[in-house]
Amino acid sequence: MTSHEEEFLDKIQGRKAVVAVVGLGYVGLPLALSFAEVGFQVLGLDVDEGKVKKIARRESYIGHISVERLRDTANLFSASTDFQLASQADAIIICVPTPLTKEREPDLTYVEGTLKALLPYLRPGQLLSLESTTYPGTTEEILRPPIESRGLTVGEDFFLVYSPEREDPANPDFQTQTIPKVLGGSTESSARVGLALYSQVVERMVQVSSTRAAELTKLLENIYRAVNIGLVNELKLVAMRMGLDIHEIINAAATKPFGYTAFFPGPGIGGHCIPIDPFYLTWKARGYGVHTRFIELAGEINASMPRYVVDKISSALNERSKPLKGATILLLGMAYKKNVDDMRESPSLEVLKLLTEAGSLVDYSDPHVPLMPRTRKGDFGLKSVDLTPETLGSYDAVVLLTDHRAFDKPFIHKYSKLVIDTRGAFPASPTVVKA
């Protein structure tokens, strides 16, 4: 054990280490708060000055992060856009986005840009952890060489790990502390240091043999979900042709106490992980001469669901002698999952885009998204509509896309002329069309 490792472990045990979290979004902010809540001095770094100012005012910009958590950690958690402050940190955790390019290949611009901004301020004795989802080899191929080019030796006077995030926003059953955390180190000493750090805020750590193993673990988790959602989305099409309710089928199958996990269909998949992560693996696999046909097929099925929903809307309106062009349509739920305000890669946005292109007059209602920001799908300039009997009755069709708890289904059902249900939330009725 080197003197740098001993010194780091001593700081961790005494909770005297300074922890820097880079990227204060849905992953970074709750992680930063978790470290501050157990007594560590935490520095948040982000290029978004708006987030930094809100943290200074102890204002939350993420729906499920309470203002109380920010206020309670005011003495230990601060934020800045000045990356020079990273030199004061003992541990630096990177939680920045890893999107796809237009060609659907990995875009590590944020990771590489973050490392470039940090490099001048890295010093002996620090730990750097990457949490962003990425392909196997990123930590060793993208992060390690620039670090060691500064004269730092990973495993001796500098420590490097990969430990993927496992956040599930607004899930009341799991928090940062209670979700087991996977970690792989570039070296054994790096792994020991990383485990010591994260075990201060996570109840159970799961060590794997390398950073590459940890990177593939994260991809497996999300690809598992993407493939199974693709499966039930395809089965939904089959069931509907057969006149069967796919939700009834899924719930019946879920009574089997072994060998089955229930997944549910919808208008597509969203969030930063599931629509994107499979492509990180398919891209890397091609470099090894492997064509991941199964994963890519699931991606194609999931990507086709917004178009399927629009076709169902069009068909339902046609049966009522109303063309899609010029129809007034209210979309319920713009967030990618229920009870959150996260719109990243939401299939609702694609449905909105397709309907608008078809000439429909579209509004939306979402209690978690009062104003729609500019998105990758476009700047629609919309704000959430309040649900009243008059409002609901004024639209040719009301489309449930995200099943927020706040939506009063009986109320919506009662006052809507036509409901298009993509979530299996409404009972069978002459005014309800399942999609």
Explain what the structure shows.
- With 435 residues, the chain is α/β, with parallel strands linked by helices.
- It folds into two domains: 3-209, NAD(P)-binding Rossmann-like Domain (Rossmann fold, 3-Layer(aba) Sandwich); 277-434, 3-Layer(aba) Sandwich (Rossmann fold), CATH 3.40.50.720.
- Helices cover 38% and strands 12% of the residues.
- It is built from 14 helices and 13 strands.
- The protein has helices at 3-13, 28-37, 49-56, 67-72, 109-118, 138-149, 188-198, 211-241, 246-253, 277-286, 293-318, 347-357, 389-393, 409-415; strands at 18-22, 41-45, 77-80, 91-94, 127-130, 159-162, 181-185, 205-207, 328-332, 361-365, 397-400, 419-421, 432-434.
- An eight-stranded mixed β-sheet has the order 3-2-1-4-5-6-7-8, with helices on both faces. The protein has a five-stranded parallel β-sheet with strand order 10-9-11-12-13, with helices on one face.
- Helix 12 links the parallel strand 9 (328-332) and strand 10.
- The longest helix is centred in the middle third of the chain and has 31 residues, at 211-241.
- The protein is elongated.
- It starts with a helix and ends with a strand.
- The model has no long low-confidence stretch (mean pLDDT 95).
